[in-house]
Design brief:
- With 201 residues, the protein is α+β, with helices and mostly antiparallel strands.
- The protein contains three helices and 14 strands.
- A four-stranded mixed sheet has the order 4-3-8-5, covered by helices on one side. The chain has a four-stranded mixed sheet with strand order 11-10-14-13, with no helix packed on it. Strands 1-2 form a two-stranded antiparallel ribbon.
Amino acid sequence: MRAIFAFLLFFLTFNSFCQGISEKSTDKPEGSEVNVFYSDNSSEFQSGQKPVGVFIDEKFIGNLEVLSFISPDKTETLEIKKEKYEIDGNEYYGKVLIKMKSDYKPNFLTLEGLCDKYLELNENPIIYQIDEKIIENSKDRTLVDENFILSIIVQKVKTSENTEVNLIRLKTKTAENLKKRKEILIRGTEEIGPIANNDLK
């Protein structure tokens, strides 16, 4: 199941990436081999990508980006269906149906609900990042499994206009993150702490 899950995630992510990045790059500085691309999910380059919904134990949890935040080790079965349907006024053109193992009970919360539960934030705008991915969906629509969250890291980020935003970084319990945490603990410095709340009151 882990191999199938990983392949599906790679295929869907690659497909999304190819459709989500502008084919036009900026001019390279003379002598440079660095290409710069601008990605915009609201641009015309996304127009050919039809939304697909993800369901876990028959519960709708979001679009394809949430696949990155589901534990493959706790997944029992995975099925893909092609059909058109509507949820909360949004049209979808396919389903990824996931059944979790019977001994695992995920607890899904919205990003907003997760922050309300663990954090006390000021009124500054919020940017959500899960592992290395910036979440562009609405904070009250994207669901995450609370039991799969390793840590929450809160940072103040200053903008060019001298204002501040709250960067909420969620680390999930992937094998890579767990390995890094173990290495940090062995060195005696816990950089990835338990669920944390910085001084953002």
